[in-house]
Specification:
This protein has two domains: 202 residues, Triger factor/SurA peptide-binding fold; 104 residues, Chitinase A, domain 3 (Roll). The protein starts with 9 loop residues before the first helix and ends with a strand. Helix 1 crosses helix 7, helix 4 packs across helix 7 and helix 8 packs across helix 12. The protein has 345 residues and is α+β, with helices and mostly antiparallel strands. It is built from twelve helices and nine strands. The chain has a four-stranded antiparallel sheet, sandwiched between helices. A three-stranded antiparallel sheet has the order 2-1-9. The longest helix is centred in the last third of the chain and has 31 residues.
Amino acid sequence: MHVSRQKLSAAGLMVAALLSCGIPAMAADSDSKAAPAKPDTSAAKLEAAVPVQDPVARVNGVAISALELKRASKVMMAAQRGAATAGEQQKEMDKQALQQLISAELLYQAGQKLETKDLDKKIDEKMTQGKARFPNQDDFTKALKELDMTENDLRDYTRRDLIISNYVEKTIMPKVTVSEEDARKFYEQNPDKFTRPESVRASHILIGADAKATADEKKAAREKADKLRKELSGGADFATLAKANSTCPSSQQGGDLGIFGKGQMVPAFEQAAFAMKPGDISDVVETQFGYHIIKLTEKKPADKVDFKDARPRIEEFLKTQKVGTAVNEYVETARKTAKIEVLLK
């Protein structure tokens, strides 16, 4: 069962977008053919969509700047991955982004009234963790530039997000509970979410020969794989041969790849592995990585996850949903007594 954390604020959205490499236009494109179309987030387009006056809103006297709105709109555009954003659609997106910023400001103002322990330390940790997800400092700096931000700006967004999170954790989350009845009802109504697909555990010996290899190199690799396969037929130990010959990092574990399901390996490898029985050793299998000899060590049929095993994740998921609802309810209540001026035209 997959559970995703809800983003509780526009500040959190901004921080998450950068620190998790979550903006498509900023993330490294490892497969350009499969990548979705990137939205037009050019400065000229955003300037045309977002009025230049500053501020665009005030919340209890605190200004929300046009630059903040531009950044939030850019994040939303990137998150929608190529959604049309011209004319009225862009204006509507700006309005949505502004409402998120207003909600975030209301939460932040409430959060400032509480102590956030070790705040500077937490900011440093989150910044460090986020930077580590980028290949290098240049890519991190480029990502900041895409949002017209400096590292100090991001640090400030991170600070705001942590203060908001602290407020939610201290005042809202303690009031949210999920009963066993709630969890069981979700379990029974969503059987498809608790089915474990068929999986296998396998080891392999890889004699590498990628697309850049010459015909002679591929021939030599194939001959070596065939030789090792004959040694295995003669009783040689698989793990020993893997450690001595495999070009895959798994060689250090005797070729063990662990447990995997369908869709996790390249097609030729997967087809061979799932057709085997525990204890079987395959013939030489060719993939784009070279030549493999596969040993199947375990096979698990598809089955259903028991409620007792699924319950902790169900409760976490339902609690996240309830917290999100409670945060929205808090914001709606806070709006009724707050002085909010929307200046966006």
